[in-house]
Automatic annotation (TrEMBL):
Species, as recorded: Calocera cornea HHB12733
Pfam families given in the database record: ADH_N (PF08240), ADH_zinc_N (PF00107)
Name of this protein: GroES-like protein
Gene Ontology molecular-function annotations: oxidoreductase activity, acting on NAD(P)H
Domain of life, per lineage: Eukaryota
Protein backbone atom coordinates (compact mmCIF):
# COMPACT_ATOMS: atom_id res chain seq x y z
CA UNK A 1 0.00 0.00 0.00
CA UNK A 2 1.32 3.48 -0.87
CA UNK A 3 2.06 5.81 2.04
CA UNK A 4 -0.35 8.69 2.74
CA UNK A 5 0.42 12.25 1.64
CA UNK A 6 2.04 13.53 4.85
CA UNK A 7 4.70 16.18 5.41
CA UNK A 8 6.88 16.90 8.43
CA UNK A 9 5.83 20.50 8.72
CA UNK A 10 7.09 23.75 10.20
CA UNK A 11 4.07 25.57 11.60
CA UNK A 12 5.68 28.66 13.15
CA UNK A 13 8.72 30.82 12.41
CA UNK A 14 11.84 29.90 14.46
CA UNK A 15 9.90 26.88 15.70
CA UNK A 16 11.25 25.43 18.95
CA UNK A 17 8.73 22.63 19.35
CA UNK A 18 8.97 19.34 17.38
CA UNK A 19 7.80 19.50 13.77
CA UNK A 20 4.60 17.53 13.18
CA UNK A 21 3.08 15.52 10.35
CA UNK A 22 0.41 17.32 8.33
CA UNK A 23 -1.71 15.89 5.50
CA UNK A 24 -1.54 17.35 2.03
CA UNK A 25 -3.38 16.78 -1.23
CA UNK A 26 -1.66 15.08 -4.14
CA UNK A 27 0.16 17.96 -5.88
CA UNK A 28 -0.32 18.80 -9.53
CA UNK A 29 2.76 18.73 -11.72
CA UNK A 30 4.13 21.39 -14.04
CA UNK A 31 6.12 20.86 -17.25
CA UNK A 32 9.29 18.89 -16.56
CA UNK A 33 8.24 17.73 -13.10
CA UNK A 34 7.73 14.28 -11.63
CA UNK A 35 6.15 13.13 -8.39
CA UNK A 36 8.55 10.96 -6.41
CA UNK A 37 7.33 8.48 -3.80
CA UNK A 38 10.10 8.94 -1.27
CA UNK A 39 11.78 5.87 0.23
CA UNK A 40 14.59 7.64 2.11
CA UNK A 41 15.47 11.28 2.74
CA UNK A 42 18.70 12.73 4.13
CA UNK A 43 19.53 15.74 6.27
CA UNK A 44 21.84 18.67 5.54
CA UNK A 45 22.97 21.50 7.85
CA UNK A 46 20.80 23.97 5.93
CA UNK A 47 17.66 22.18 7.18
CA UNK A 48 18.09 23.15 10.83
CA UNK A 49 19.64 26.52 9.89
CA UNK A 50 16.55 27.39 7.83
CA UNK A 51 14.31 26.73 10.83
CA UNK A 52 16.49 28.41 13.48
CA UNK A 53 17.56 31.45 11.42
CA UNK A 54 14.19 31.70 9.67
CA UNK A 55 15.18 32.03 6.02
CA UNK A 56 13.55 30.70 2.84
CA UNK A 57 10.33 29.94 4.72
CA UNK A 58 7.94 32.11 2.71
CA UNK A 59 4.69 30.66 4.10
CA UNK A 60 3.43 28.27 6.77
CA UNK A 61 3.10 25.36 7.04
CA UNK A 62 6.49 24.83 5.33
CA UNK A 63 8.64 21.80 4.65
CA UNK A 64 12.45 21.63 4.43
CA UNK A 65 14.86 18.99 3.14
CA UNK A 66 16.98 18.80 -0.01
CA UNK A 67 17.78 15.10 -0.47
CA UNK A 68 15.33 12.55 -1.86
CA UNK A 69 15.61 8.90 -2.94
CA UNK A 70 12.58 6.96 -4.12
CA UNK A 71 10.57 5.83 -7.10
CA UNK A 72 8.81 7.82 -9.79
CA UNK A 73 5.08 7.81 -8.93
CA UNK A 74 3.73 10.10 -11.64
CA UNK A 75 5.05 11.99 -14.68
CA UNK A 76 4.22 15.64 -15.36
CA UNK A 77 3.59 17.13 -18.82
CA UNK A 78 6.41 16.75 -21.31
CA UNK A 79 8.50 14.34 -19.25
CA UNK A 80 10.18 11.73 -21.41
CA UNK A 81 13.41 10.74 -19.67
CA UNK A 82 11.79 8.84 -16.78
CA UNK A 83 9.00 6.32 -16.36
CA UNK A 84 6.75 5.40 -13.47
CA UNK A 85 8.56 3.01 -11.11
CA UNK A 86 12.08 4.24 -11.91
CA UNK A 87 14.44 4.37 -8.92
CA UNK A 88 15.74 7.94 -8.67
CA UNK A 89 17.58 10.42 -6.49
CA UNK A 90 16.68 14.10 -6.67
CA UNK A 91 18.01 17.40 -5.37
CA UNK A 92 14.80 18.96 -4.08
CA UNK A 93 14.21 22.51 -5.32
CA UNK A 94 12.47 23.69 -2.12
CA UNK A 95 10.61 26.45 -4.01
CA UNK A 96 7.27 25.33 -2.53
CA UNK A 97 6.56 23.03 0.40
CA UNK A 98 5.75 20.28 -2.11
CA UNK A 99 9.21 20.61 -3.70
CA UNK A 100 10.97 19.74 -0.41
CA UNK A 101 12.21 16.40 0.89
CA UNK A 102 10.81 15.77 4.37
CA UNK A 103 7.52 14.28 3.27
CA UNK A 104 6.17 11.10 1.73
CA UNK A 105 6.05 12.44 -1.85
CA UNK A 106 8.17 15.21 -3.40
CA UNK A 107 7.66 17.14 -6.61
CA UNK A 108 11.01 16.83 -8.39
CA UNK A 109 12.45 18.61 -11.39
CA UNK A 110 13.77 16.24 -14.07
CA UNK A 111 16.81 18.53 -14.45
CA UNK A 112 17.77 17.74 -10.84
CA UNK A 113 16.94 14.02 -10.87
CA UNK A 114 19.00 11.02 -11.98
CA UNK A 115 18.34 7.28 -12.05
CA UNK A 116 19.66 5.33 -9.10
CA UNK A 117 21.08 1.92 -10.10
CA UNK A 118 20.03 -1.05 -7.95
CA UNK A 119 23.64 -1.38 -6.77
CA UNK A 120 22.87 1.52 -4.37
CA UNK A 121 20.26 1.33 -1.62
CA UNK A 122 17.77 4.19 -1.34
CA UNK A 123 19.41 5.11 1.96
CA UNK A 124 22.82 5.41 0.27
CA UNK A 125 21.34 7.28 -2.68
CA UNK A 126 19.69 9.84 -0.43
CA UNK A 127 23.11 10.97 0.89
CA UNK A 128 24.21 12.17 -2.53
CA UNK A 129 22.22 14.94 -4.31
CA UNK A 130 22.67 18.22 -2.40
CA UNK A 131 26.24 17.63 -1.22
CA UNK A 132 27.41 16.13 -4.53
CA UNK A 133 25.96 19.00 -6.58
CA UNK A 134 27.53 21.52 -4.19
CA UNK A 135 30.88 19.78 -4.60
CA UNK A 136 30.74 19.54 -8.39
CA UNK A 137 29.39 23.04 -8.99
CA UNK A 138 32.04 24.56 -6.72
CA UNK A 139 34.88 22.75 -8.46
CA UNK A 140 33.71 23.95 -11.86
CA UNK A 141 32.35 27.43 -11.12
CA UNK A 142 34.58 28.68 -8.32
CA UNK A 143 37.84 26.89 -9.04
CA UNK A 144 37.69 26.40 -12.81
CA UNK A 145 38.26 22.65 -12.55
CA UNK A 146 37.01 20.90 -15.68
CA UNK A 147 35.37 17.68 -14.57
CA UNK A 148 35.87 14.82 -17.04
CA UNK A 149 32.60 14.38 -18.92
CA UNK A 150 31.45 10.93 -20.06
CA UNK A 151 32.44 9.09 -22.19
CA UNK A 152 35.89 10.33 -21.07
CA UNK A 153 37.71 7.86 -18.84
CA UNK A 154 37.21 8.28 -15.09
CA UNK A 155 39.42 9.03 -13.31
CA UNK A 156 41.19 11.36 -15.72
CA UNK A 157 44.93 10.76 -16.15
CA UNK A 158 46.95 12.15 -13.23
CA UNK A 159 47.86 15.81 -13.58
CA UNK A 160 50.60 15.47 -10.99
CA UNK A 161 49.15 18.54 -9.26
CA UNK A 162 47.96 18.78 -5.66
CA UNK A 163 44.46 19.84 -4.57
CA UNK A 164 43.43 20.50 -0.96
CA UNK A 165 40.01 19.74 0.53
CA UNK A 166 39.51 21.43 3.89
CA UNK A 167 36.97 19.21 5.69
CA UNK A 168 37.33 15.96 3.74
CA UNK A 169 35.05 14.00 6.10
CA UNK A 170 32.13 16.41 5.71
CA UNK A 171 29.32 15.40 3.41
CA UNK A 172 30.31 17.97 0.77
CA UNK A 173 34.04 17.42 1.32
CA UNK A 174 33.71 13.67 0.75
CA UNK A 175 32.33 14.33 -2.74
CA UNK A 176 34.94 17.01 -3.46
CA UNK A 177 37.69 14.50 -2.62
CA UNK A 178 36.20 11.99 -5.06
CA UNK A 179 35.58 14.49 -7.86
CA UNK A 180 38.98 16.17 -7.57
CA UNK A 181 40.56 12.72 -7.73
CA UNK A 182 38.38 11.87 -10.77
CA UNK A 183 39.64 15.08 -12.41
CA UNK A 184 43.22 13.84 -12.04
CA UNK A 185 44.44 15.76 -8.96
CA UNK A 186 46.50 14.38 -6.10
CA UNK A 187 44.15 15.10 -3.20
CA UNK A 188 45.20 16.26 0.26
CA UNK A 189 42.51 16.74 2.91
CA UNK A 190 41.88 17.63 6.54
CA UNK A 191 39.73 15.71 9.05
CA UNK A 192 39.76 14.50 12.64
CA UNK A 193 42.04 11.47 13.11
CA UNK A 194 39.07 9.10 13.62
CA UNK A 195 38.00 9.92 10.03
CA UNK A 196 41.43 9.67 8.33
CA UNK A 197 40.94 6.08 7.11
CA UNK A 198 37.54 7.07 5.71
CA UNK A 199 38.92 10.06 3.79
CA UNK A 200 41.81 7.97 2.43
CA UNK A 201 39.24 5.39 1.24
CA UNK A 202 37.60 8.15 -0.82
CA UNK A 203 40.81 8.67 -2.78
CA UNK A 204 42.83 11.21 -0.79
CA UNK A 205 46.59 10.64 -0.81
CA UNK A 206 47.17 12.20 2.61
CA UNK A 207 44.94 13.47 5.42
CA UNK A 208 45.90 15.99 8.12
CA UNK A 209 44.38 16.65 11.53
CA UNK A 210 42.99 20.20 11.46
CA UNK A 211 43.28 20.39 15.27
CA UNK A 212 47.10 20.18 14.96
CA UNK A 213 48.67 23.63 15.49
CA UNK A 214 51.17 22.79 12.70
CA UNK A 215 48.58 21.56 10.22
CA UNK A 216 49.25 24.30 7.64
CA UNK A 217 53.01 23.79 7.58
CA UNK A 218 52.50 20.01 7.30
CA UNK A 219 50.14 20.48 4.35
CA UNK A 220 52.54 22.90 2.65
CA UNK A 221 55.44 20.49 3.06
CA UNK A 222 53.41 17.56 1.67
CA UNK A 223 51.95 19.58 -1.22
CA UNK A 224 55.20 20.94 -2.62
CA UNK A 225 55.34 24.24 -4.51
CA UNK A 226 52.28 23.84 -6.79
CA UNK A 227 49.24 23.90 -4.52
CA UNK A 228 46.94 26.55 -6.00
CA UNK A 229 43.42 25.16 -5.51
CA UNK A 230 41.58 24.59 -2.23
CA UNK A 231 37.94 23.66 -1.64
CA UNK A 232 37.03 24.77 1.89
CA UNK A 233 33.89 22.76 2.64
CA UNK A 234 33.74 24.21 6.18
CA UNK A 235 34.45 27.96 5.82
CA UNK A 236 34.16 28.80 9.51
CA UNK A 237 36.24 28.72 12.68
CA UNK A 238 39.43 29.78 10.90
CA UNK A 239 39.27 27.27 8.04
CA UNK A 240 39.30 29.97 5.33
CA UNK A 241 42.44 31.57 6.77
CA UNK A 242 44.09 28.14 7.07
CA UNK A 243 43.08 27.26 3.51
CA UNK A 244 44.56 30.50 2.18
CA UNK A 245 47.77 29.93 4.15
CA UNK A 246 48.09 26.41 2.71
CA UNK A 247 48.47 27.67 -0.88
CA UNK A 248 52.08 27.23 -1.96
CA UNK A 249 51.84 28.30 -5.62
CA UNK A 250 52.52 31.96 -6.54
CA UNK A 251 48.74 32.51 -6.78
CA UNK A 252 45.67 30.49 -5.94
CA UNK A 253 41.95 30.20 -5.30
CA UNK A 254 39.94 28.99 -2.31
CA UNK A 255 36.29 27.99 -2.81
CA UNK A 256 34.33 28.93 0.32
CA UNK A 257 31.02 27.23 1.01
CA UNK A 258 29.81 29.94 3.38
CA UNK A 259 30.04 33.66 2.57
CA UNK A 260 33.66 34.84 3.01
CA UNK A 261 34.67 38.33 4.16
CA UNK A 262 36.51 40.46 1.56
CA UNK A 263 39.56 40.71 3.83
CA UNK A 264 39.98 36.92 3.79
CA UNK A 265 41.32 37.16 0.22
CA UNK A 266 44.95 38.19 -0.12
CA UNK A 267 46.89 39.76 -2.97
CA UNK A 268 47.74 36.33 -4.29
CA UNK A 269 44.93 34.06 -3.06
CA UNK A 270 41.34 34.82 -4.00
CA UNK A 271 38.53 33.42 -1.83
CA UNK A 272 35.50 32.73 -4.02
CA UNK A 273 32.09 31.97 -2.59
CA UNK A 274 30.43 28.85 -3.92
CA UNK A 275 27.31 26.77 -3.29
CA UNK A 276 24.83 24.42 -4.92
CA UNK A 277 23.23 27.45 -6.61
CA UNK A 278 26.15 27.56 -9.08
CA UNK A 279 24.70 24.46 -10.79
CA UNK A 280 21.36 26.24 -11.27
CA UNK A 281 22.76 29.63 -12.32
CA UNK A 282 24.86 28.10 -15.07
CA UNK A 283 22.92 25.50 -17.07
CA UNK A 284 26.06 24.19 -18.76
CA UNK A 285 27.74 23.49 -15.42
CA UNK A 286 24.50 22.01 -14.10
CA UNK A 287 24.08 19.55 -16.93
CA UNK A 288 27.73 18.53 -16.73
CA UNK A 289 27.56 17.98 -12.96
CA UNK A 290 24.41 15.82 -13.23
CA UNK A 291 25.76 14.04 -16.33
CA UNK A 292 28.90 12.99 -14.52
CA UNK A 293 26.78 11.92 -11.55
CA UNK A 294 24.85 9.49 -13.75
CA UNK A 295 28.08 8.05 -15.13
CA UNK A 296 29.60 7.67 -11.65
CA UNK A 297 26.47 5.91 -10.39
CA UNK A 298 26.17 3.58 -13.39
CA UNK A 299 29.72 2.36 -12.86
CA UNK A 300 29.22 2.30 -9.07
CA UNK A 301 32.25 4.58 -8.80
CA UNK A 302 30.73 7.24 -6.52
CA UNK A 303 31.02 6.37 -2.84
CA UNK A 304 27.98 7.66 -0.92
CA UNK A 305 28.36 9.17 2.54
CA UNK A 306 28.22 6.56 5.33
CA UNK A 307 24.54 6.25 6.33
CA UNK A 308 23.46 6.85 9.90
CA UNK A 309 19.87 5.67 9.99
CA UNK A 310 17.83 7.55 12.59
CA UNK A 311 14.81 5.60 13.88
CA UNK A 312 11.28 6.93 13.54
CA UNK A 313 11.27 7.82 9.84
CA UNK A 314 10.00 11.35 9.16
CA UNK A 315 9.29 11.88 12.88
CA UNK A 316 12.92 10.96 13.68
CA UNK A 317 14.01 14.11 11.84
CA UNK A 318 13.28 16.11 15.00
CA UNK A 319 16.07 14.17 16.74
CA UNK A 320 18.40 14.52 13.75
CA UNK A 321 17.93 18.27 13.51
CA UNK A 322 18.99 18.52 17.15
CA UNK A 323 22.13 16.42 16.44
CA UNK A 324 22.93 18.86 13.64
CA UNK A 325 22.48 21.90 15.87
CA UNK A 326 24.84 20.32 18.43
CA UNK A 327 27.45 19.60 15.69
CA UNK A 328 27.24 15.88 16.43
CA UNK A 329 27.47 14.82 12.77
CA UNK A 330 30.92 13.45 11.87
CA UNK A 331 31.85 11.55 8.72
CA UNK A 332 28.27 10.37 8.14
CA UNK A 333 24.87 11.45 6.84
CA UNK A 334 21.68 11.34 8.86
CA UNK A 335 19.11 9.36 6.88
CA UNK A 336 15.42 8.60 7.47
CA UNK A 337 13.35 5.77 5.98
CA UNK A 338 9.79 6.79 5.17
CA UNK A 339 8.61 3.24 5.95
CA UNK A 340 9.82 3.70 9.57
CA UNK A 341 7.30 6.53 10.12
CA UNK A 342 4.28 5.82 12.36
CA UNK A 343 1.52 7.73 10.55
N1 LIG B 1 26.20 26.99 0.03
C1 LIG B 1 25.71 25.79 -0.22
O1 LIG B 1 25.04 25.57 -1.24
C2 LIG B 1 25.98 24.70 0.75
C3 LIG B 1 25.66 23.38 0.39
C4 LIG B 1 25.98 22.35 1.27
C5 LIG B 1 26.54 22.66 2.50
N2 LIG B 1 26.79 23.96 2.83
C6 LIG B 1 27.40 24.29 4.12
O2 LIG B 1 28.65 23.64 4.15
C7 LIG B 1 28.96 23.21 5.46
C8 LIG B 1 29.26 21.72 5.42
O3 LIG B 1 28.08 21.00 5.07
P1 LIG B 1 28.11 19.41 5.13
O4 LIG B 1 26.77 18.90 4.86
O5 LIG B 1 29.25 18.91 4.33
O6 LIG B 1 28.44 19.25 6.69
P2 LIG B 1 28.59 17.99 7.63
O7 LIG B 1 28.88 16.76 6.88
O8 LIG B 1 27.46 17.97 8.58
O9 LIG B 1 29.89 18.48 8.45
C9 LIG B 1 30.38 17.71 9.49
C10 LIG B 1 31.86 17.48 9.23
O10 LIG B 1 32.54 18.73 9.29
C11 LIG B 1 33.88 18.49 9.70
N3 LIG B 1 34.44 19.70 10.29
C12 LIG B 1 33.84 20.51 11.20
N4 LIG B 1 34.66 21.55 11.49
C13 LIG B 1 35.79 21.38 10.75
C14 LIG B 1 37.00 22.13 10.59
N5 LIG B 1 37.22 23.25 11.29
N6 LIG B 1 37.93 21.67 9.73
C15 LIG B 1 37.73 20.54 9.01
N7 LIG B 1 36.60 19.78 9.12
C16 LIG B 1 35.65 20.20 9.98
C17 LIG B 1 33.75 17.35 10.68
O11 LIG B 1 34.95 16.62 10.55
P3 LIG B 1 35.54 15.65 11.70
O12 LIG B 1 34.34 14.98 12.33
O13 LIG B 1 36.42 14.74 10.93
O14 LIG B 1 36.25 16.54 12.66
C18 LIG B 1 32.51 16.56 10.22
O15 LIG B 1 32.82 15.36 9.55
C19 LIG B 1 27.75 23.59 6.31
O16 LIG B 1 28.00 24.85 6.91
C20 LIG B 1 26.64 23.73 5.30
O17 LIG B 1 25.60 24.58 5.73
C21 LIG B 1 26.53 24.98 1.97
Amino acid sequence: MSPPFKALSITEHKQKTPLTLIDFEEPSLAEGEILIENAAVAQNPVDWKQIDYDFNIPSLPWVVGGDVAGTVYKLGPGVTGFKVGDRVISFAERKTARHSAFQTYTVGSVDRTVNLPTSYTFEEGSTIPLAYVTAGAGLEAALGVVLPAPPAALPAPSKGEPFLVWGGSSSVGAFVVQLAKAAGYTVLATASPKNHAYVLSLGASAVFDYHDADVVSKIRAAAGPNLSLVYDSISENGSIEASVASVTAPSGKVAAILPPKPEQSTETVKVVQTGAIRATENAEIGSRVYGILSALLETHTLIPNPVKLIPGGLLGINEGLQLGREHKVSGEKLVYRIADTKF
